[in-house]
Design brief:
Elements: H1 3-22, E1 35-43, E2 47-48, E3 51-52, H2 55-58, E4 60-61, E5 67-68, E6 77-85, E7 91-100, E8 124-135, E9 138-148, E10 157-166, E11 174-180, E12 184-192, E13 195-196, E14 201-203, E15 206-214, E16 223-236, E17 239-250, E18 259-270
Length: about 270
């Protein structure tokens, strides 16, 4: 682990243990009711930090023997999950998953980055424990991720620690930094704004810069990219529906293709 990675990890842990002293005051005897939200999304392609994870179904091998994905890859994925808010204010647990629905054949020994390994190698199940709080200085978040890839032994699983800060000013600038032994250092900066057309209909575009996999110890390449999110949300009681699009521009030299996009729809139920 590099000095930078050690510093980021140490900073995240220090902030995590210090978080309660910065949180909004609340009587120690009070507790929040447990809340459960179940949700699912259907996407045209699953992108993880600018990388299309389902390229086993959409990429083609060019004359140079290189796997080249399309600008708008079609490798549909279903992404169900559940979030549980605990009696401790700000503390929550989430289980999220992604399963590409086409080209799911799996070789006996899938290799890292093998486009012919079948999209089942992109199956993912993540466990996240998060703690969020707000005060006059802004919104703070701390997360611990456990990534698991059940059909891709070379990647196996990984743990990541992340922290985020959103400033209480125009365009809600947000900074995120995380670190993991395998994926390396990741950071992003973004801006967003919500346009509430009514109590039930909102549009919240966001624009972000990402730099990820810095010093990664896996086959995941280091890359920088820009992302534009265009989400629309409709809320009806305990139900929420969303339709969205995302565009990714890869700033990494020789990226092919440099520009990619996806669309998705989703729904959630809270109780």
């Amino acid at each position: 682990m590099t000095k930078t990675q050690k510093f980021v990890t140490g900073l995240a842990l220090a902030a995590l243990f210090a978080a309660p002293s910065f949180a909004q005051e609340k009587a120690a005897t009070e507790s929040e009711p447990v809340g459960i939200t179940v949700y699912t999304d259907a996407v045209s392609g699953y992108f993880f930090r600018g990388f299309h994870a389902g390229n086993g179904a959409s990429a083609e091998i060019n004359k140079d023997g290189k796997a080249v994905d399309s600008a708008f890859p079609i490798a549909p994925a279903i992404q169900p999950g559940v979030t549980v808010s605990t009696p401790i204010e700000g503390l929550w647990i989430d289980v999220w998953s992604s399963f590409v629905t086409t080209g799911r054949k799996v070789t006996d020994a899938p290799k890292e980055g093998d486009v012919n390994g079948g999209t089942a190698t992109a199956d993912e199940v993540d466990l996240t424990i998060g703690y969020d709080f707000s005060n006059a200085a802004g919104d703070f978040g701390f997360k611990v991720y456990q990534y698991a890839y059940p059909n891709n032994p070379p990647y196996g699983s990984d743990v990541e620690i992340a922290m985020s800060y959103t400033a209480p000013v125009l365009l809600s600038p947000k900074f995120v930094v995380s670190n993991s032994p395998t994926l390396g250092l990741f950071y992003s900066f973004g801006i967003s704004h919500e346009f509430a057309f009514s109590e039930s209909f909102a549009f919240a575009p966001a624009f972000m810069f990402f730099d990820n996999n810095v010093g990664a110890k896996s086959a995941v390449p280091e890359q920088s990219y820009l992302e534009l999110d265009i989400p629309f949300t409709i809320t009806a009681g305990s139900m929420s529906y969303r339709i969205y699009g995302k565009g990714f521009y890869n700033l990494t030299e020789d990226a092919d293709p440099a520009l990619q996009a996806m669309v998705g729809i989703g729904a959630s139920l809270s109780f």
